[in-house]
From TrEMBL:
Residues 16-167 form the F5/8 type C domain. It comes from the Bacteria. It comes from Hyalangium minutum. Gene3D superfamilies: Galactose-binding domain-like. This is F5/8 type C domain protein.
Amino acid sequence: MIGSKKSLPWRRLSGALIPSLSVLSLMALATPARAQTTCSTNVPITAVTAKADDGNVPSNVLDGKPDTRWSCNGSGCWIRADLGAEKQVGAVDVTWHSGATRNYNYEVATSRDGSTYYNVAANRSARSDQAQRITFTAAPARYVRVTVKGNTTNNWASISEMRVLGCGGTSEPTPPTDPTPPTDPAPPTDPTPPTDPTPPAGGKDGFGVTMIYPTKSGGESWAMAADPTKDSRFDPQNPITKNADGSWKIKATQVRMSVFTSTGYGAGKIPTYNRDQMTSKGYMLAANDWKNIEMTGFVKLNAASDMADNFDWYARGGKHNDSVPCEGSSYKGALHYDGRTRWQKESWHVSYEQAPYKPATSSLKGRWVGFKAVMRNVTAGGKTAVKLELYLNENADKVTWKKIYDMTDAGDWGGDHGKCGASNPAMPMTWGGPIATFRWDSASDVDFKWMSVREIQP
């Protein structure tokens, strides 16, 4: 399957109408998660629930016996710890069943009320039968949820032991009135972007949508066709239907709409996944791979089971799957259904660095918005870096765009490229990839239109 997450891939909470236990994010295979506060105090768990079980019940994770476990069959199974009251938490210890022989894909989320959850970690477990600690930025929470997106052997979620770790005892500062999502520590960023609409600089595309950057002369480009079902360069991977207003509808809870370059895609044509060699060449498959690009899409969220999930526009890699993990590199620009935004750096599938969340807008449900992700190579400190920008058109008028995120990956953001032959594990992903992807999860009804991917002059 093209572009599977991220997300987490990882990027993300697996949707359920009931509060679901966020995927437990073990950071052992990637750069260790960086907590702002050392949290090592065991916090008593008063209750534990799960999406389902096969007779190996959730309470087994609290019995201190490594030969018992909770288990659930199916990607997206979750288990949730209830601490009884809000505690300042910053880590989770998880002992995975048969952890020495398989890697589990997971996410971790926290909640103060059992309804609104925020992702705090997402990655893949290391191979070990010992407890693995997942750390994240300390935040007040009553519930900690671990969601499992299968493992390298099958789709089972299975945890032998789990505990939650607090920071400096059980008393917390008075929480703010509005819930503030926990964030990962901030990578180096440019100054806070302006909130005023960005003045048009690149003219308009074929849909009449203002371009932030002009299209490169003779560069690679793609625009959504009048009938995208007949476009060989576009693969929605799910049925799509045309609406009366000319927009299109997709009803699927896992969407990966892939856009290929004019060269097309073939995994067998990719000569190497070695990061140093790809950096030297500047591409993964071909010289016209998607690299310096502006991705645009207009979406209307009609129904979602998890408002903490998000839209992702991403590129600089190929297919994202477990069989060839080093093909799954990407920069992912995220716009969450609840109005938050951030970038993610996926070194390989699945290994993430998370930029901190920033507020961008109000809830997306029931309204059209435009969303742009821009990634372009720049020079920083005499070396090639990647400038990452996100833009929002809140009223979908095609014109009024505001910058909502602006940062640069100069090789000091973190990363795990050593798995794929890199001399510098934190290197910026300066190469292009054959596939650009419009992705979202946990949304059962979304309308979309005016999508495009354009090569821009960096």
